[in-house]
């Protein structure tokens, strides 16, 4: 006989409850992990007193939780766990902070003493890429080396002691060093700027000495990574530099263009070893073993061995070890089908890592790893189930929700760090999902088989080529989206603001009525904001003759030739993407001539972006051909675009229907110039006077005092309606030169918050007082000089107008205070002189769209 209907219903209800309990996440360890993290943060940022107070509160919670009348309450176990974890963390972090404050090097660092240290490298030397006047684009000017102190000698004292130090050194001698190697360094001590238990910073003088040998596993890892880089040489340059970074985090050969594109597209995490890398490698091994029906326990063990091998391959630095723990959590909890144990495992991993290394509490990478992993185990399964209920195939559902959940969870931290919110990052991450796993697995395989012979490794790298090329293409197109990044408040307030916004949207989205209203509001905002960001109204303005592009700290000026879509470009800025975007905004399809005033990176670094996808008549350089590496790079890029490399010198004239260029400098170019002498290279800049329908324009490159004096003494025709200020408005401009030009308009091509304090405030004030209209790209964005139709036919300069596009580039992030675009740079030494003004009134100015 069958069971009664009531019995069957009761059994079904109990089964449903059991299923819900099995799938509901176990959050019992989460309060303990969060409490410990909070106490460690307080101890590191606010000091041991704050940690002691929180520890006392935790001890009180322990007492309350163990009282007999509370022992059986439902909340008692949670309070007991949280209070115990917080108390242990408080004692630990207080001890660490007090040890750092009482360290023998701390006092020496405060007074800037000289020191000789014996240290052991804790991580790879991290390059600090510079964009200075002579720096190679994307090249390293210095390296940061985290290290563990073994012995210190300061003045007359010496100690055999521990502690973490940070070394700041020139790149020479540090390339190829591995974590675990011991070195001796000399330099000047300085206080640590970050509260991450670093005892001191040492500004190293000279290369490292007494370099000890690496451990065998570190040497093996370095050999395999070198093999991967050699194998990747069969791919195009961009892909060859990306594959090692994608597979094992080796970004040494990554091009500056790919690095910038990945940053703008929100894909930088792909080139840093993370839990995703380890989950991919372990998952591939686990899936292969399951395909051959291996015992689950054996499969899990071999997958763990693969994870350990990958950690050795990627060098077991603290960041890689942290990623190993997080990747192991995801792999063992999700891939083995025990989703309910994922959250306890994650909480236990966080707690263990914080107790082992408390400084991880202030590490942004740690926060990003934890948030992304939490999103994968808490949010992604529910989203994937919802998509499957709506008919999305299972594999596709997971592929869609994983990057979306991780992106939403980590967005507040990224916004707080960068001061920006990317509108394209989630879409870009969705598009790269199919390519990441095969590229990673084939890249790791190429490294592993490289000792067997170059052809085997090269074959694996070649098979990974299409996937890597797809990643490069997605990043390139995503980075080129105008308005793809929104400015956002940075720091803790910005992170909290975005967190509140995300939570509010999630709460509103749970109600069907409010969800419809919310979707309508978001659609309305997109219809209004997106078109205005992609195509700003009134840009480009009609009748434009000259445009100073906002390319950050560099020069890029576009001159109309009278032929639609065809221009002359003077300098290309420091960045490929920025000059490319400016030319796209102007509708430029061809370049009659690119004139590089000189070969410093802030004028020639973006040449590849200007040449990309456009017919180019030629690339012109002046008589100064230094730095030599920059000339070679320009020659390669010009040859790749099919453009001849031509030479310009004083006395030459070039004409187009609506443009004439007269080359008037340099007057006395030196036969040889030291490339390290930045002033000499600046004074060798080409100086060009342009005749346009909007008036005369003097383009001066970076000429400084000596070259300006030569131009005045030569009797060259310097008078012009518009002056492109020399050297980004630096204080090295003479009164005699500016009086000879007597401009009505001064264009200053400069980057917001630059470290050179350009432009000089005294110079800008003096120009303004003399009646000169000053426009700066860091405040106004792109600036166009226009000639209204029919006006000024007899005197072109009399009717010129200025149109500012607005939306200037934000200041680049750097250590110390960040200058906002609307705040002047700190004042340097003022430069005053009488400037003779013209009788003509200053040029009228109108904003875009007017």
From TrEMBL:
InterPro entries, per the entry: ComA-like_MBL, ComEC_N, Competence_DNA_uptake, Metallo-B-lactamas, RibonucZ/Hydroxyglut_hydro
Compositional bias annotation for Basic residues: 811-820
Keyword Membrane carried by entry: yes
Organism, scientific name: Pseudonocardia acidicola
Transmembrane regions: 34-67, 79-98, 270-291, 298-314, 320-336, 343-360, 366-387, 399-417, 423-449, 456-479, 491-509, 516-535
Subcellular location: Cell membrane
PANTHER family referenced in this protein's UniProt entry, alphabetically: DNA INTERNALIZATION/COMPETENCE PROTEIN COMEC/REC2 (PTHR30619), RECOMBINATION PROTEIN 2 (PTHR30619:SF1)
Keywords in alphabetical order: Cell membrane, Membrane, Transmembrane, Transmembrane helix
Protein name: MBL fold metallo-hydrolase
Keyword Transmembrane helix: yes
Record membrane topology: Multi-pass membrane protein
Chain ranges of the Metallo-beta-lactamase domain: 553-752
Stretch list, region Disordered: 787-850
């Amino acid at each position: 006989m069958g069971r009664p209907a009531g019995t069957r219903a009761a059994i079904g209800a109990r089964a449903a409850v059991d299923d819900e309990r099995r799938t509901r996440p176990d959050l019992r360890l989460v309060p303990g992990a969060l409490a410990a993290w909070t106490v460690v943060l307080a101890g590191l940022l606010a000091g041991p007193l704050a940690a002691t107070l929180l520890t006392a509160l935790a001890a009180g919670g322990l007492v309350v939780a163990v009282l007999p009348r509370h022992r059986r309450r439902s909340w008692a176990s949670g309070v007991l766990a949280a209070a115990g974890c917080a108390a242990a963390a408080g004692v630990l972090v207080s001890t660490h902070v007090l040890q750092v404050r009482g360290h023998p090097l701390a006092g020496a660092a405060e007074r800037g003493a000289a020191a000789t240290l014996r240290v052991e490298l804790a991580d790879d030397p991290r390059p600090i890429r510079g964009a200075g006047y002579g720096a190679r684009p994307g090249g390293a000017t210095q390296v940061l080396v985290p290290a563990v102190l073994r012995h210190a000698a300061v003045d007359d004292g010496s100690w055999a002691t521990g502690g973490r130090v940070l070394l700041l050194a020139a790149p020479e001698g540090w390339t190829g060093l591995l974590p675990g190697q011991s070195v001796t360094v000399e330099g000047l001590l300085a206080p640590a700027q970050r509260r991450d238990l670093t005892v001191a910073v040492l500004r190293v003088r000279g290369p490292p000495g007494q370099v000890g040998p690496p451990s065998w596993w570190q040497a093996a890892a370095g050999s395999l990574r070198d093999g991967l880089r050699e194998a990747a040489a069969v791919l195009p340059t961009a892909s060859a530099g990306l594959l090692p970074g994608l597979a094992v985090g080796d970004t040494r050969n990554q091009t500056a263009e790919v690095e910038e594109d990945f940053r703008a597209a929100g894909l930088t995490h792909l080139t840093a070893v993370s839990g995703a890398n380890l989950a991919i490698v372990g998952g591939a091994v686990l899936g292969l073993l399951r395909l051959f029906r291996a015992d689950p326990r054996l499969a899990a063990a071999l997958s763990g061995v693969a994870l350990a091998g990958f950690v050795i391959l990627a060098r077991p630095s603290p960041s890689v070890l942290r990623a190993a723990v997080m990747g192991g959590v995801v792999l063992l909890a999700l891939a083995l089908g025990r989703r309910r144990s994922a959250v306890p495992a994650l909480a236990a991993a966080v707690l263990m890592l914080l107790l082992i290394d408390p400084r991880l509490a202030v590490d942004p990478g740690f926060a990003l790893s934890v948030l992304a992993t939490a999103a994968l185990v808490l949010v992604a399964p529910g989203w994937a189930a919802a998509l499957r209920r709506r008919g999305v195939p299972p594999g596709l559902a997971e592929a869609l929700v994983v990057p979306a959940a991780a992106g939403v969870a980590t967005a507040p931290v990224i916004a707080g760090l960068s001061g920006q919110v990317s509108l394209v990052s989630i879409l870009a991450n969705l598009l790269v999902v199919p390519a990441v796993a095969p590229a990673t697995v084939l890249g790791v395989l190429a490294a592993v088989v490289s000792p067997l012979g170059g052809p085997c490794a090269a074959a694996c790298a070649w098979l990974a080529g299409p996937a890597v090329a797809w990643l490069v293409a997605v990043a390139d197109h995503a980075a080129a989206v105008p308005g793809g990044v929104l400015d956002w408040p940075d720091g803790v307030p910005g992170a909290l603001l975005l967190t509140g916004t995300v939570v509010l949207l999630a709460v509103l989205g749970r109600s069907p009525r409010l969800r419809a209203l919310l979707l309508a509001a978001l659609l309305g905002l997109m219809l209004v904001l997106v078109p205005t960001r992609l195509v700003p109204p009134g840009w480009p303005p009609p009748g434009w003759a000259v445009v100073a592009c906002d390319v950050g700290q560099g020069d890029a000026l576009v001159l109309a030739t009278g032929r639609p879509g065809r221009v002359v470009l003077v300098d290309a800025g420091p960045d490929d993407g920025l000059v490319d975007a400016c030319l796209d905004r102007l509708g430029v399809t061809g370049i009659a001539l690119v004139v590089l005033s000189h070969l410093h990176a802030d004028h020639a670094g973006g040449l590849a972006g200007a040449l990309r996808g456009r017919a180019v008549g030629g690339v012109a350089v002046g008589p100064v051909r230094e730095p030599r590496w920059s000339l070679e790079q320009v020659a390669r890029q010009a040859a790749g675009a099919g453009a001849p490399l031509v030479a310009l010198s004083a006395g030459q004239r070039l004409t187009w229907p609506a443009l004439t260029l007269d080359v008037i400098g340099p007057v006395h170019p030196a036969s040889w110039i030291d490339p390290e002498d930045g002033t000499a290279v600046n004074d060798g800049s080409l100086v060009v006077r342009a005749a346009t329908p909007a008036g005369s324009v003097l383009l001066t490159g970076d000429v400084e005092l000596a070259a300006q004096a030569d131009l005045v003494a030569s009797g060259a025709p310097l008078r012009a309606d518009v002056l492109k200020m020399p050297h980004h408005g630096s204080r090295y401009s003479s009164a005699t030169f500016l009086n000879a030009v007597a401009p009505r308009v001064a264009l200053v091509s400069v980057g917001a918050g630059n470290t050179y304090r350009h432009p000089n405030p005294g110079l800008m004030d003096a120009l303004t007082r003399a009646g000169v209209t000053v426009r700066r790209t860091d405040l106004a964005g792109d600036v166009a000089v226009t000639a209204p139709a029919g006006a000024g036919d007899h005197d072109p300069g009399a009717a010129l107008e200025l149109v500012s596009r607005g939306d200037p580039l934000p200041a680049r992030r750097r250590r110390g205070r960040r200058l906002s675009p609307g705040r002047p740079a700190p004042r340097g030494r003022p430069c005053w002189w009488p400037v003779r003004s013209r009788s003509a009134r200053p040029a009228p100015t109108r904003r875009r769209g007017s």
